[in-house]
Model the fold of this input.
Amino acid sequence: LARSERYSEAVEAVDDINVGLSDDAGPKVAAWKALALVSTHRQLEDYEEMGKALASATGIDAPRFLARVALAQLDLGRVEAALKARRRIRWAGAEPDRYPLVAALDAELLLASGLADAAVANVDGIDAPVVRKVRGRALFDAGKYEDALAELDKAATLAPGDPEVAMWREAARYVVGGRARRDADQALTKLGLQAKAKDAKTVHGLALRIAGRADAARRRFEQSLEDVSDEYPNALAYRAHVELARMALDGGALEAAEKHLKAALDQNPTYLPARALMGRTLLALGDPNAALEQLVDVIGANVATAADELAFAEALVAGSPSDEDRGQARQALERAAKKGASAEEIARVAALVDPDAAAPDKRRRRRR
Done:
């Protein structure tokens, strides 16, 4: 297990496991054997066998076991299964020490919810190899690209064969720019062509989108969603769908945006950026109640953009709003203004929130 997690000697590890551990050694040994095979099959990019081994990795409630199971589920893009495994982790003490493996898992789950800053904070001060990869990814999503590159450089020295570290490192190099940008672009293209998993193409698309190359990013996102299967998975397909939905929404293609967002939320219902975009899309399609269901958690998590705040306010006052609804809508307008919403958009939604205040004075002037 240790050899495969370091991305070294995967074939030898599989041979040793199959020869050295008999099938009748007991349920605990069988469970750990299955978990070790999960790790080695991941390194060998045999994702179907990885899934089969993961299904057999059961029966042990130790945090170090369950955390590895949950991380493996995330590697296959199974966010809800990872959450289920995380909920089974229990500690003997009320305030356990920060176990690096579980801290890394919690950071990964925060990232899967779109909470990059919280993910960075969750692993603050933990200096462990398992943490460096997720901290680098979280820094990237938080927009701290140079810090992300420094962290991923360190992760690459500890696990030089890890394709996930490699693709996020090259994405950070590309976004940081300079002379390395061309080499990073070529490296990302090569990773996308060589790997069986499709997530490298999604990450390439993210780097291109951040750098302002929208058309090239769209092509990579679309390619990352082609022929996805158990053997050719894309753990980040939900992010590709969200990016394509964002492009569709900007272009006024509401039905296309809704289709992509449904696919994203089917894979990962916890991803708040998908829920925010779905709320705005549903509002534009004329369903404010459904829009509110999507937007309320985005607002509660304090990650709403100005556009999300405006959509929330508008959805609140659709139909027959109560005084409380109007009050919440006014607060959303205040937050939207602080987040940079235009005066024109603020005025448009304010007129819906307080139509009487926005109406012209219709009283007749007194005759002199």
Residues 129 and 155 are 7 Å apart (CA to CA). The first helix runs from residue 2 to 5. DSSP finds 22 helices and no strands in the chain.
